[in-house]
UniProtKB/TrEMBL annotation:
<feature type="domain" description="DUF4123">
    <location>
        <begin position="22"/>
        <end position="141"/>
    </location>
</feature>
<dbReference type="InterPro" id="IPR025391">
    <property type="entry name" value="DUF4123"/>
</dbReference>
<protein>
    <recommendedName>
        <fullName>DUF4123 domain-containing protein</fullName>
    </recommendedName>
</protein>
<dbReference type="Pfam" id="PF13503">
    <property type="entry name" value="DUF4123"/>
</dbReference>
Length: 179
């Protein structure tokens, strides 16, 4: 659990963007009880795996969740800041939820160096913090799609990394909080 002051500052920053919505892609395998918490909070969400899932797989699947500033779910997720459990993104308020879902589902299967299809765990901030700075212009455009900004945990639990696209290139700014 992060200190209350840092949690407040992080929440304020995540919700500081105007005319936009905050979404999270959370790894059910990293957050025990995620699916139950989402269902309890009456928020817009969807599983990013397709098809009928067993209850066991549904518990560990990645979920796209629209977050609201004062919701218990947002508070609960921010308690886990620094545990590499998901990524946050800012999306223009005009973008439909299903377009966001379609985008994230389109980037979860990639080809490795042997041209084999593999599952890309982009929703792990440790993966995205390595991947985004190395993207070519085309890869960056594909990864961002309708996403205006990715907000990820930094290497230190008291930081937020802000990734955006500027002229087809990934731009990074890091924000540190005093804990």
């Amino acid at each position: 659990m992060i200190p209350a002051e840092m949690k407040t500052k992080t929440c304020d920053y995540l919700f500081s963007f105007t005319r936009s919505h905050l979404f999270a892609v959370i790894d059910g395998a990293s957050v025990p009880g995620l699916l139950e918490a989402i269902k309890k909070n009456n928020t817009q969400y969807c599983c990013l795996l397709s098809g009928k899932l067993s209850s066991e797989l549904a518990q560990v699947a990645p979920y796209l969740v629209k977050l609201e500033k004062k919701s218990p779910l947002t508070e609960w997720l921010l308690d886990g800041w620094g545990t590499h459990s998901g990524i946050y993104c800012i999306i223009d308020e005009s973008v439909p939820f299903m377009d966001v879902r379609k985008h994230f589902r389109s980037v979860q299967i990639v080809k490795n160096y042997d041209s084999k299809c593999v599952f890309f765990r982009y929703y792990d901030p440790r993966v995205m913090n390595v991947y985004l700075p190395t993207c070519t212009s085309n890869e960056a455009k594909q990864m961002f799609g309708p996403i205006a900004i990715y907000l990820l945990e930094g290497e230190r639990s008291n930081s937020v990394k802000k990734y955006s696209l500027m002229e087809g290139e990934v731009n990074l700014k890091e924000y540190l909080y005093i804990s």
